[in-house]
Amino acid sequence: MIDYPFLFCWKYLCVSSYLFQAASGAVQCQMMDMTYPGVVPMQKVNFDAKSEYDMIQNYKVLQDVFNKLKIEKHIEVNRLVKGRPLDNLEFLQWLKRYCDSVNGGIMNENYNPVERRSKGGKDRSSKGSQKITKSLQANNMHNSGSGETVGLSRPYGPKQAKTGAGGDVANYSGEIQALSKEVTDLKLSVDLLEKERDFYFAKLRDIEILCQTPELEDLPVAVAMKKILYSADAKESALVEAQEYLSQNLNAEEVEAEDEH
Predict the structure, then answer these.
(1) Rg, the chain, Cα only
(2) CA of 117: how far to CAs of 24, 30, 239, in Å?
(3) 94, 154, 185, 232: least CB-packed within 10 angstroms?
(4) Helices 220-229 and 156-211 sit at what angle, rounded to 10 degrees?
(5) How far apart are CA 27 and CA 40, in angstroms?
């Protein structure tokens, strides 16, 4: 016989590590950037965010994008940055459905996530490289005028550039494939979690219907079970309150029985 609670917990732990990584808000920004190219200011997204402050800045970027696109979705930032798997899973599921509704569930094959993530750094590095290039050119002209031999020659420049570009493309392709596999594995895990969730939700619904039966709804056991089912506090368990209620009612029934005798 399959131990469903154990299986559910095992799958939950497997996917929770991925969901904790998504708590920074950077993944959500990139999903929107892929759906609406150029709308997300990727240079403002911090993919190395570890502190809550840095994560909140990413969610501010995401909320600004939502406002710009007139997406009426409030982001529960204070809950998401805590890294709770269920909160992040729920938000990722909503965002995935929204992106699929926009692009029809078809990924843009020309979209390069690694290049887009490093866009801000590339912009800054390109400016720096332009300054270095100008400095080298000025030095080259000075050395040529003085008759000194210049160490850098033009014929080898393009070949070195092509080699570097080819290496970058190969690295990007490898990272893209790894990310695609990770996304696929995460989607499979989410699908399994959804099936397990529906399975246990159906059982809880059956128990709720049983407790609402007119012949049983006023019994102490049924009332105690409904206290657990309808508990709204996610941080504290309602089990203690239900046990106290059940104990008090059972003791009261025993006292009444003794008085009758």
Answers:
(1) 30
(2) 14, 8, 47
(3) 232
(4) 160
(5) 12
